[in-house]
Amino acid sequence: xxxxxxxxxxxxxxxFIAALLVSVLVYDTGRxxxxxxxxxxxxxxxxxxxxxxxAGLQWYAERQAQxxxxxxxxxxxxxxxxxxxxLGLLTIDDWRAIRYEVLSDEILQDWISTTVDGAYAWIDSxxxxxxxxxxxALFKERVASEHGRNAVQIVFDTLDPCTxxxxxxxxxxxxxxxxxxxxxYNLCRFPDPWYRDQIGDYHDSLVLILANIPDLxxxxxxxxxxxxxxxxxxDQIKLQFRLIRSATxxxxxxxxxxxxxxxxxxxxxxxxxxxxxGVPLTISGILLILLTILYRSSVxxxxxxxxxxxxxxxxRTEAIEALMRLAVEIFxxxxxxxxxxxxxxxxxxxxxxxxxxxxxxxxx
Length: 364
Description:
This protein has helices at residues 2-33, 36-49, 52-70, 83-89, 92-102, 105-123, 137-144, 146-157, 164-176, 195-211, 219-225, 234-250, 253-266, 270-305, 313-331, 334-354, 357-360; strands spanning 133-135, 216-218. It is an all-alpha fold. Strands 1-2 form a two-stranded antiparallel sheet.
């Protein structure tokens, strides 16, 4: 029976080492993910300090413009300027400047705060879906102001001055256009007397689009409108979040229970306690230290070849940087946890080795 007990204890040691690594990672992840104020701070830092939003704006604008032409939403006549050509002229620096003009840090902070508060309140509520409504009034006011004109100016400044041929083409289309119908400007910078009218045209069109958007954007309703009936429902998602939250809270108990099992199966003396507890704790501490050293490259590799493998390269780069900020918060306390576990393990080994023979014979 003693041999069987030690075999089972050895198996428990292997499971304990794996369980301790997983439980520490799960607990530290839950400490961040289910901490609403901390998540709010991290997301706000990502939104305001990284290029994730400018990169997303660049990709989304190009994609939407492409879809307009693919679906025939835009009229197609000879010599009509292609908006894709205009968007292709904008660099990430241009999009970053546009973001600062129309999406201030204050606006982003408000949207993030509303989203996080609504999502976390929903987890503990009886509601089927979270109540998340973005206030767009400040955003619309900003676009309609000088900031919106500055954003248009950024786009306008990327254009080359018009050639004589382009000006002649515009005049020809303007003369042939039916009364009251707008004639689009060529993708170039027109001189006076069209200069101010061209910029004003672009800005007025932008304001006109925003005028049709309500001041209060119901994000939940928009998501529900595109909900796939075959996909997992919000009630199931909420239940999964609750189960994950409970798992993160109780995760440290699993290795503790395994230590008690090892104690019952194989430990009869203080020297054996040093071996059966001290060695696995020391190994676990070393592995946790290695995890804190290697997690950056591991997270980047997993994201690049996993969920983000199909995303555009610029967005993928910024998304990995954003996830890395989240990972830093998750792994921040792990080094000290690893040191504590390792030191405890070494202490048990040393104490067990120093036990005198007569004391060693004393059973626990």
